[in-house]
Amino acid sequence: MLRFFLSRLLTFLPTFVGVTIISFSFIRVLPGDPILVMAGERGLNEERYAELMEQFGFDRPILVQYADYLWGVLRGDLGNSFVTKRPVWDEFFSLFPATLELSACAMIFAVMLGLPAGVIAAVYRGKFFDRLLMSSALVGYSMPIFWWALLLIIVFSGMAGLTPVSGRISLLYFFDTPTGFMLIDAAMSGQKGAFSSAVQHLILPTIVLGTIPLAVIARQTRSAMLEVLSEDYIRTARAKGLSPVRVTGMHALRNAMIPVITVIGLMVGTLLAGAILTETIFSWPGIGKWMVDSIFRRDYPVVQGGLLLIAVMVMIVNLTVDLLYGLINPRIRKN
Amino acid sequence: MAVNEPANGDPERPGRLREFWFYFRENRGAVFGLWVFAAFLGVAIFAPILAPHDPTLQYREHLLQPPFWQAGGELAFPLGTDAVGRDMLSRLLHGARYSFFVGIVVVVVAASGGISVGLLAGFAPRWIDTIVMRIMDVILAFPSLLLALVLVAILGPSLLNAMIAIAIVLQPHYVRLTRASVLAELSKDYVTSARVVGARLPRLMFITVLPNCMAPIIVQAALSFSTAILDAAALGFLGMGAQPPTPEWGTMLAEAREFILRAWWVVTFPGLAILITVLAINLMGDGLRDAFDPKLKRS
After folding, report:
1. What is the pLDDT of residues B150-201, one digit of tens each?
2. Which residues of A204-236 are buried (b: 16+ CB within 10 A; e: fewer)?
3. What's the ipTM?
4. B 41-100 near A (Cβ less than 8 A)
5. With an 8 Å Cβ cutoff, are A292 and B149 in contact?
6. For the whole model, what pTM was predicted?
7. What chain A residue is nearest to B282 in terms of C-alpha separation?
8. Can you give B63-100 as a three-state secondary structure string?
9. What is the distance between the alpha carbons of residues B65 and B74, in angstroms, rounded to a whole number?
10. Inter-CA distances, B245 with A8, A158, B237, B253, Å
11. Separation between Cα atoms, residue A129 and residue A133, nearest integer Å
């Protein structure tokens, strides 16, 4: 077991170094001089230019620059945003709760609908329900979510007038956000209607971001269930006279969950990619929108730092899923 | 010499293609997907003939005209016009060309690169293999759309750069798949016998082993065709793909965003075109997977 842990950690390190190299090179392979970009249209004189060169260390050998960068990364220093002048690290973690809240809601939405859908489809294999659910799952899986978001806005906000189209809460409410999670903060603020406003703002983004995970989970649950349902011990359980609900719900689902949980864990990357589109469309002030805005504003330290932090986050989640999987399934450890 | 050739001379066994078609045909969804895809291909090829108007021509007296079945619509513009009076139908038909082009180029670039690297990793000494696979891990650590977005930001927004970025992002999947299949094949007897007979490395790689690794790669190609179309449209939508006035579906959606509550058709049709195309390809991909692997997951 320890060996398995160590071997996985050992593959983590080179990947981490690789990710830092990519994000380090990003700012240096950009067309144009980063300092001139920073200066903007006003331009700057030669002395100021040299001063900035020195300040950012662009005049030193590339390896020294990289070592410096890596040392900064390890201490949590990712430089400052060109635009807001605030440290990239602080900006990331002040916006991250918004993305986390949205992603968590999307994931809960996807699991709550996807798991039952997959189980039902497996139980009614080949029947009408199975076809209906699996066709819908394939449609969801093929969905261009940026269009899906616009459609939902047309129907629910435009025609029905039910949900707001942007932001996390109505402008009527103002309170401190100690946790950064709007649902919790709104509930704690004690202001009447704040919580329901936060919920209303969450509905459409949650559906949009959760659609592809929902489809993937439904498909994965179905195939895992089908595999498990044909095992001998299920036949034994049926022969013992257990009720169908008990057989599928307790015996089968429990074992079918292993691959499903893996898929859920590995979907973090998908979620973050989806968050880029979802947050941009719904003006959701999270990491995805922040990255897109920074790319357009040419705020390179932010793009560089955000890229690194997102990749590291995905890697940590994948590593955790891997380790947990090894913990649940001893056969994995052998390899 | 012909140790690895399939037994085509054997009259008992149907040809590979026939066998494949036999299984593929059983999946009605896949056959349906194939027809839709064929139609999409036809539209992409014949768009200039099929389209009633020039896709970039602006009819200034017909701004935001609804489809013909709605009040105010006319048959000259069957699916209506957009905000500057361009015919929606013509733009959609021409859009098929861009999507198809994106799909083909991305798949060919990503697959040929990925297969070569994967073959190399599978056959090369252990340390090269390790280095190559770690590099692929690094690329896979970034959410694909984000990495594509950043790459386009570096290269500059255009359809070509979007395709390059998407190909780079998709390529590791081919590397992993090819390498895994190669490693599985290498331990088989026919490879050993080809070695014993004296096959050299290039022959061993490309003629003995590679053809037997193709099934999962073809399935991956189908799936990444649809991913490429989706990602290119997403980049176009974010303003980092094809630039206006190109009638690319994602770019059309981006231009249509501000009219979503006034003119439903400018938003609905481009997205529907993306969805139908991607859905058809995914249906086909599922069918391909089942047909190549008849023992597994029949349902």
Report:
1. 889 888 888 999 999 999 999 999 999 999 999 988 888 998 899 899 888 8
2. bbbbbbbbbbbbbbbbbbbbbbbbbbeeeebee
3. 0.87
4. none
5. yes
6. 0.88
7. A142
8. CCCCCCCCCCCCCCCCCCECCCCCEHHHHHHHHHHHHH
9. 8
10. 49, 27, 13, 12
11. 6
pLDDT in tens, B74-133: 888 888 888 888 999 999 999 999 999 999 999 999 999 999 999 999 998 989 999 999
Average pLDDT on B42-47 reads 91
Q: How confident is the model at residue B299 (pLDDT cuts 50, 70, 90)?
A: very low
CB pair distance less than 8 Å for B267 and A147:
yes
Q: Which of B150, B274, B279 sits opposite A26 (nearest CB)?
A: B150
Binding-face residues of A in 245-274 toward B, CB within 8 A: 269-270, 272-273
Which of A141, A269, A303 is nearest residue B150 as measured by Cβ atoms? A303
pLDDT attached to residue A237: 85
10 Å CB burial of residue B78 (0-12, 13-18, 19+) is middle
CA–CA distance, B209 with A230 (Å, rounded to integer): 34
Nearest-CA distance B12 → chain A (Å)? 32
At position B144, the amino acid (one-letter code) is S
What residues of chain A, 153 to 182, have a C-beta less than 8 Å from chain B?
A: 153-154, 158
Q: What is the pLDDT of residues A42-59, one digit of tens each?
A: 667 777 777 777 777 777
Cβ–Cβ gap B145/A154 under 8 Å: no
